[in-house]
Specification:
binds flavin-adenine dinucleotide; FAD/NAD(P)-binding domain; 3 domains; 465 residues; eight-stranded mixed beta sheet; alpha/beta
């Protein structure tokens, strides 16, 4: 089936500006009990604080619940924020957060028993990614939501939903507290229980899940500067991954190393008995051993990621955001922008529902999805992921390394997606495929120009910090 791209221009004036008189709901607030809110947001990772901040800015009474003592404290995942997303006016404020390292380069190593090939990509200008530590970043973001007016309760785990006549009206926490909301925003990530209890998140199959193992290695700032600089690193070596792309992302004084695989029947085979064996093979590669010499393991973690959007992200009075809603592209190592965008869009949709006094799944879905469908970043990354995932899943691991080599030589996933469709169309005399490639090329044009613009915006935001 052919992909239909929406016709969007970046910076296009929004059709769905939140109404100003939403603040009139303050009147209702006076009659609200202590445990009653306009919006309850569950989870203070990426999507949650973004949703809570936006909702509070729109004048709503918001409660943000997070199970950790400090937001992000348990999250040692990759965590590079994509600048192509951050230049969106909705996300620019995130450049003011605690940034560990400004990433301007990418190195990819292809390692076979015979030779090691290294490719270095350096855009002529601009930042590619911002490297962050989640234990610092999520905590900062939660503070921002608080400053905007959201009430935040940490060390509070949501255990259950409250339903009245089949509609979700609130949540129950581990201490037995009950909180009621006009709209519940589920931002509890991959292990969300709300989406499950509400029947929106199905049981997942192995090839829809990736199990990652992650190490944080402390080396000290000087050593990280010297050995890693401002680059991220990808490594394609034998028995180091299963249909994924092992990486090292440098932070200020630590580096994060990640690998793993799709949980299909071939995840464990031969000498590979657990994903930690992939990690061991990775860090035993001489090139990595050298880079990590003298380092101390600061944290180790296993992370599960679902690689599948859920069919429906709304129910009456409920919206699923971020990973809870399947808005993540694990194969491209990407999910934070999707979570941040969907958090904000969920808050806007909820505000509209409150204004219209219509809390139906249809109303929420329409206002939530319309913003997602007009987001060029989300649409184009989804397209690239779908296209590449199909070929990845059908290849053995050795061939994936070769394919990645072509992707890197060919100018990255975006160029590769255009090139593949274009060439296939030419070969098969199918002008439809060529047109697809052309449509996609046109769609992403604004993002090909973010280089110098992104630096200007970044400098401005850092100065305002
Ligand atoms: C190994 C790895 C590397 C990655 N690297 C990158 C990368 O470099 N760039 C990128 O863009 N994306 C990356 N991702 C994806 C990214 O981390 C996620 O997509 C993103 O964090 C999703 O945000 P979220 O807000 O939906 O969920 P999360 O960030 O997981 O936040 C969920 C929050 O909800 C809380 N919570 C959960 N259950 C409850 C409950 N019952 N009650 C209260 N609170 C609860 C959790 O404690 C957590 O704070 C990576 C993922 C992995 C696994």
């Amino acid at each position: 089936m052919r992909t239909k791209f929406p016709t969007i221009r970046r910076n296009e004036k929004r059709k769905t500006q939140p109404s100003q008189n939403i603040t009139n709901n303050k009147k209702d607030d006076l009659s609200m009990g202590n445990s009653e809110y306009d919006i309850i947001v569950v989870g203070a990772g990426c999507a949650g604080p973004a949703a809570a901040k936006k909702a509070a800015e729109l004048g709503l009474k918001v409660l943000l619940l997070e199970k950790s003592q400090k937001p992000g404290e348990k999250n040692v995942s990759g965590t590079c924020l994509n600048m192509a997303a951050l230049v969106d006016p909705d996300l620019q404020y995130l450049m003011k957060g605690p940034i560990e390292r400004e990433i301007t380069e990418m190195h990819t190593y292809m390692i076979t028993p015979e030779r090691t090939t290294m490719m270095r990509e350096t855009p002529s200008e601009g930042l590619i990614l911002l490297s962050v530590r989640r234990d610092e970043y999520d905590a900062w973001h939660t503070e921002e939501a608080k400053k905007a007016g959201a009430e935040v309760k940490l060390s509070t785990t949501v255990m259950d939903i409250i339903e009245e006549n089949g509609t979700i009206t609130g949540v129950v926490t581990d201490s037995g507290e009950k909180y009621f909301g006009k709209v519940i925003i589920d931002a509890a990530g991959v292990n969300s229980i709300i989406g499950r209890k509400a029947g929106l998140i199905p049981k997942r199959k192995g090839d829809k899940m990736i199990l990652y193992t992650i190490l944080n290695v402390w080396l000290g700032e000087e050593v990280v500067n010297e050995r890693f600089g401002n680059s991220i690193y990808y490594f394609l070596g034998p028995n180091t991954q299963h249909k994924t792309w092992p990486w090292i992302f440098p932070k200020k004084d630590v580096v994060t190393i990640g690998t793993g695989g799709y949980m299909d029947d071939d995840l464990f085979k031969g000498d590979i008995k657990s994903v930690n064996d992939y990690m061991q093979n990775l860090i035993d590669l001489p090139i990595i051993k050298e880079k990590l010499e003298g380092g101390k393991v600061e944290a180790w973690g296993l992370h599960l990621e679902f690689d599948e959007e859920v069919e429906k992200r709304t129910k009456d009075r409920l919206i699923l955001t971020g990973e809870a809603g399947g808005f993540v592209i694990p194969f491209l190592g990407e999910g934070m922008p999707e979570a941040l965008f969907t958090g904000i869009y969920a808050a806007e949709a909820a505000a509209k529902a409150i204004e219209a006094n219509d809390f139906s799944a249809e109303f929420l879905e329409e206002h939530f999805m319309s913003r997602i469908n007009e987001n060029v970043f989300m649409q184009s990354f989804r397209y690239i992921a779908d296209l590449n995932k199909k070929s990845i899943m059908s290849m053995p691991d050795q061939e994936i390394a070769a394919m990645m080599q072509n992707v890197v030589i060919g100018g990255g996933f975006i160029s590769n997606a255009i090139h593949t469709s274009w060439m296939k169309g030419a070969e098969e005399d199918d002008m439809g495929l060529v047109q697809d490639a052309k449509d996609f090329y046109d769609l992403i044009q604004p993002y090909r120009q973010v280089g110098s613009e992104s630096v200007e915006i970044y400098k401005k935001m850092r100065a305002e910090k």
